[in-house]
Fold this protein.
Amino acid sequence: MHTVTFLNRHGFPVTSLLQSKYMDDLMNNENTFSSIPVTEERVNVEKKIIEKGRVKISKIVKEESEVLNLPTTSEQVHIRRVPVNKIVENVPETVRYEGNTMIIPVLQEVTVVEKKLLLVEEIHVTKTSVFSEETKEIKLRKEEISIERSDNKDVQNFKE
């Protein structure tokens, strides 16, 4: 008796009802030709989604008070009236500057035998900068994130 083993294309032995039927025919009729089916195995691969755990993310906004020293700048105006009482022939400039002082002439017409302009006074306006610090309390917001993870019982050795 002959031993014949059918192998698939990967070299593994194939056993099936068809193989045994054709083997019996081959063994009984040595002089006859029989056809031997050629089989091939194929693999079908599918993916499944398996939940390994859940993650819950939440955000909390917290407010904190912080005291700050804030530099501020303000301008102060000093007004000084300077009496001049001088007769002028022409109208002076409307406004003139001497350094950081603005001078505004004030005119008045006076009656004399002839009409002349009398410079009664000048108004000197001086501007100075004053530096100071104010203390104010302001609210600052800060976000914090918390993460809660719930794992399935089937999942083991799961690391973040």
